[in-house]
Write a structure and sequence with these properties.
With 481 residues, the chain is an all-alpha fold. It has 18 helices and no strands.
């Protein structure tokens, strides 16, 4: 017990030292991620219920709107990253914040389908702008800090993850309190958070960040579309995102049925965020010691499938009250554990499937292709929930999606524990040809007690993709506002 307490206190001390040692810019960006998720998750968990009850939308239309929101963010992530490469961080973040303010305020007053769709599109596209801008610059600052000898980049990225999940934890609680007034109040409060973020960045964000290189290279899309292994990974990852989207589509109906109110939904979202904050890094370290990339994604997808099956098995009993909420809580826990395994593995796999020198394009394409899958899948899921099938059937059908996605995962060479690293090697070669070297680690495994970490070369303007397991899940692909 004493040893466990010592480890917890030591970890806390390291986080505090890392934060104190950071320069003002990464501090601003980390706090920005917290604010993004706070304002976003004060609204999103309650959107499906609002559209179905207050607006009176049919289930298929609710599913389409939620999928459209995801696609307008994930599907346009490549465009956002490209704009950051061309124009820099500051203008893209400011534009994204302004669009999010307008979108949230518009959603609060939207009462017709076309106005809801317009507001949701603005909200999603806003994230497609500011998320890649903030994420890529945090990653770049973390690499620079590592090169200067201030410790591994994963410490900064871990702070970024914790900040985002803290916002995702507190946001639904804030939204639940504001729903006591009405949905419009939650939307306006979320918009108010982004007003503060916009003002902070307009005041504190430098016009030009030293060392930020603008990249205007073109091409690579045709080759990407012919890369079957990469597209198979996108489809498998898209099945995870579709399952995650059920937190906003299928889960609210189940909670309303069991509790007679959507109020417990906020606590289930808080549970998911708290699990990620507390367990993401230990889970990724555990997986890195025992599982390869394909094995990790397989385990994660199967856990998600089991989560759907838990609800399906309990539905015929028609339990209500606290006992009736237990299957939903089990689904949330298993989905979150699956997320912890799937997301880092998928991101680590991309460099090995990418065309030479196109890691940024492929990283963004993973979001875009999977976002399209969510759009189509959410439309189908909303229709499925409206068909009047036996209560367990929709959940069983949903369980088959991640289970079948396991068969889509690219095969690795026999006897290998990791992909071969072709994309990483080619990026290293391109840097050598350009006369620039990849970041050097400030420690090594076993030499000073530090854990191993990624030495993957970064692409200017895009976050580095880790081949290790100590980095956080990418906010743009996980539940991020």
């Amino acid at each position: 017990m004493t040893d466990l307490l010592s480890r917890v206190l030591a970890a806390k001390s390291r986080r505090e030292r890392t934060w104190k040692d950071l320069s003002p810019l990464p501090r601003l960006l980390i706090l920005t991620q917290l604010a993004f998720n706070l304002g976003f998750f004060a609204v999103l968990p309650f959107l499906a219920e609002h559209l179905g009850t207050a607006i009176g939308m049919a289930g298929w239309l609710v599913g389409f709107v939620l999928g459209l929101r995801t696609f307008s963010q994930q599907g346009l992530f490549v465009i956002g990253g490209r704009l950051v490469d061309r124009h820099g961080v500051r203008p893209v973040v400011l534009a994204g914040c302004a669009l999010r303010i307008v979108g949230l305020a518009w959603l609060g007053y939207a009462e017709r389908t076309w106005t809801v769709v317009g507001a949701v599109l603005l909200i999603g596209f806003a994230a497609a702008l500011f998320s890649p801008a903030v994420e890529s610059e945090v990653a770049r600052q973390a690499v620079l800090r590592e090169q200067e000898g201030h410790g591994p980049r994963t410490r900064v990225l871990a702070l970024f993850t914790v900040a985002g999940q803290t916002g995702a934890f507190a946001g639904p609680l804030l939204g639940a309190l504001l729903l006591g007034v009405d949905f419009r109040s939650a939307c306006l409060a979320g918009a108010g958070v982004f007003v503060l973020v916009l003002a902070g960045h307009a005041w504190l964000m430098p016009q030009h960040i030293p060392g930020r290189v603008r990249n205007r290279a073109r091409g690579g899309v045709r080759t990407l579309l012919r890369n079957r292994r990469f597209l198979a990974l996108c489809c498998a990852y898209g099945s995870y995102l579709l399952a995650y989207n059920q937190l906003y589509l299928a889960l609210p109906d189940e909670v309303e049925r069991a509790a007679g109110s959507p109020a417990p939904l906020s606590w289930l979202f808080a549970l998911s965020s708290l699990l990620v904050v507390l367990a993401q890094l230990p889970v990724t370290r555990w997986a890195g010691d025992r599982l390869g990339l394909r094995s990790s994604m397989t385990a994660g997808l199967l856990l998600i499938a089991v989560g759907f099956t838990v609800v399906a098995a309990a539905r015929p009993a028609d339990l209500t009250g606290i006992i009736g909420l237990l299957p939903a809580a089990g689904y949330v826990v298993l989905l979150t554990l699956g997320q912890m395994l799937v997301v880092p593995a998928a991101r680590a796999w991309v460099p090995d499937l990418a065309e030479n020198g196109r890691l940024g394009l492929y990283t963004g394409a993973l979001s875009s292709v999977s976002g399209l899958i969510v759009l189509i899948g959410s439309f189908a899921t909303g229709s499925l929930l409206d068909l009047g099938l036996p209560a367990a059937v929709p959940w069983l059908i949903l369980a088959t999606v991640p289970a079948l996605a396991v068969t889509l995962l690219p095969r690795l060479p026999e006897g290998t524990d990791r992909p071969g690293g072709r994309g990483i090697d080619s990026l290293t070669a391109s840097r050598k040809a350009a006369g620039t070297a990849p970041p050097k680690p400030s420690g090594s495994n076993g030499s000073n007690g530090s854990p191993p970490r990624s030495t993957t070369p970064r692409v200017d303007g895009m976050p580095p993709t880790s081949t290790g397991w100590t980095g956080p899940s990418p906010p743009s692909l996980s539940p991020s506002g």
